[in-house]
Specification:
CATH architecture: Up-down Bundle
Radius of gyration: 26 Å
CATH class: Mainly Alpha
CATH topology: Na+/H+ antiporter like fold
Number of helices: 18
Order of helices and strands: HHHHHHHHHHHHHHHHHH
Structural class: mainly alpha
Distance between the termini: 87 Å
Strand content: under 5%
Largest sheet: none
């Protein structure tokens, strides 16, 4: 028991330390986490024997729910409102186009028949929220495009999951109900969005009105509520992933007590979920089994990066431009960057576990191909995404990260938030600028101080507007 705890903690510390290398050199963190899992697996030096696909699948689902809830909290409502229409088109029409293009290429490149090739396309059709939320930070992407990619990654999982389940059922039972599949997709998306928004409003009300003595319980309350929304939505027939993302979006953009502690806690849990999920996925992999299909896997990777995703993005956004009569227009550079920013990650690998659980023939071959495509494609995109944005003239300067943060404890009022100020050290020849800024701040403080007594006097005389007015001193 103690040995297991020690090994797990050492791997976790190594994974956390590797994020420093990831941020500095642009290597996606998920690749490093998976590498640590492979290192610890049965084919690595540590030799940990792990082959429980059912447990891995359950861990992946819960981890994705936490990641999506945290991603929703970090997403600004303004960006979401701008991105929801193109993201919705990419999450539905774009996902289907990606599936068919990859399936057609797999039917030509691999020994799989057309049904198994479509299954491979369905597994690979969605982008990954964990990979995108962590990989796009600090890459200088415009907020509009980043919002579209992040919202798409939070909403396209239901389509890929339902297509995967439908194709598994078609292969194992010989049944494929297209009309029923369309109804299930629409129903789950609608129920997921509505349940996420409605239940999240109840969660916000509970957080703001439940006066707890221990302030550290508020983040746990928020996370428990987010996972409860995920589970309840699945039970009523909706999509829990979409509900978790919408719930995080509502919670993060509402007037909320203890907002900073909740956001910090969920971000930490999202990172922990990524580490656990990708390391467990790495434990499942046997590197020697990847070699026989390595050439085919690299060819499929090229198709995914250079054909399937660009065709889906250019085709879907072109259709959207026509349907909206030019309201949603994207330049060639923007569509190119959106094509390259569709990172794969844990979701395709988790979806590849479904055929293994149902005993689909050729499921292990599909899993090995998907694993190689995800790792190789993510490495290529992670290294080149920032330089591509600069080459296309779309890169924007990221705000500098403050090396010092001061936090105030205590019972924060509803809607309280923190404000960040960046104070640069004085540079030679820059004293005049600092003096002018200081003088402006002092003048502002004097104006506020002069207005404050008048406002207090106005409130004493019952004037809600805070505008000073002399009382009536005439004799009765």
């Amino acid at each position: 028991m103690d040995v297991g705890i020690a090994v797990f903690c050492l791997l976790a510390i190594a994974a956390i330390a590797s994020t420093r290398f990831s941020a500095r050199f642009g290597v996606p963190a998920l690749v490093l986490f998976v590498g640590l899992g492979v290192f610890a697996g049965s084919s690595g030096p540590l030799g940990i024997d792990f082959s429980d696909y059912a447990l891995t699948y359950d861990i992946g689902l819960i981890a994705l729910a936490v990641i999506l809830f945290s991603g929703g909290i970090e997403t600004k409502m303004r960006l979401f409102q701008v991105a929801i229409v193109p993201s919705g088109m990419l999450a539905t029409v774009g996902t289907l186009i990606t599936m068919f293009v990859i399936g057609l290429a797999a039917w030509w490149l691999t020994p799989l028949d057309w049904r198994h090739s479509l299954l491979l396309g369905a597994v690979m059709s969605s982008t990954d929220a964990a990979a995108i939320f962590s990989s796009l930070k600090g890459r200088g992407l415009p907020s509009r495009l980043r919002g579209i990619v992040e919202t798409e990654s939070g909403t396209n999982d239901p389509v890929a999951l339902l297509m995967t389940l439908a194709l598994v059922e078609a292969i194992t039972r010989g049944e494929f109900d297209v009309a029923g599949l369309v109804v299930r997709v629409v129903t789950q998306l609608a129920f997921g969005a509505v349940a996420g928004v409605v239940l999240a409003r109840l969660l916000v009300w509970l957080i703001n009105h439940l006066r707890l003595e221990a302030y550290g319980l508020y983040p746990i309350l928020a996370l428990s509520g987010g996972l409860l929304i995920y589970a309840v939505t699945n039970l009523v027939g909706g999509n829990g992933f979409l509900a978790a993302y919408c719930a995080g979006l509502v919670v993060g953009n509402s007037r909320l007590a203890h907002r900073h502690s909740i956001a910090t806690f969920t971000e930490a849990l999202a990172w922990g979920s990524q580490i656990l999920m990708f390391m467990v996925l790495g434990l499942l992999v046997f590197p020697e089994r990847l070699l026989p299909a390595l050439g085919v896997s690299l060819a499929v990777t090229a198709v995914v990066l250079l054909v399937a995703r660009p065709v889906a993005v250019f085709g879907t956004l072109g259709l959207l431009r026509g349907l909206s009569l030019g309201r949603y227009t994207f330049s060639v550079a923007e569509r190119t960057l959106l094509s390259w920013a569709g990172l794969k990650g844990a979701v395709p690998i988790i979806l590849a576990i479904i055929p293994l659980r149902f005993g689909v023939p050729g499921a292990e071959y599909i899993f090995n191909v998907v694993f190689v495509v995800v790792i190789v494609g993510t490495v290529i995109q992670g290294f080149s995404l920032g330089p591509l944005a600069q080459r296309l003239g779309l890169a924007v300067a990221e705000p500098p990260r403050s090396p010092l943060r001061l936090e105030l404890g205590g019972d924060a009022p509803i809607g309280a938030n923190g404000h960040r100020r960046l104070h640069r050290p004085r540079q030679p020849g820059g004293g005049g600028e600092h003096r002018r800024a200081g003088a402006a701040l002092r003048r502002r403080d004097r104006r506020r101080a002069a207005r404050r007594p008048a406002r207090h006097a106005a409130r004493e005389h019952g004037l809600p507007g805070g505008r000073p007015r002399l009382p009536d001193l005439r004799p009765p």
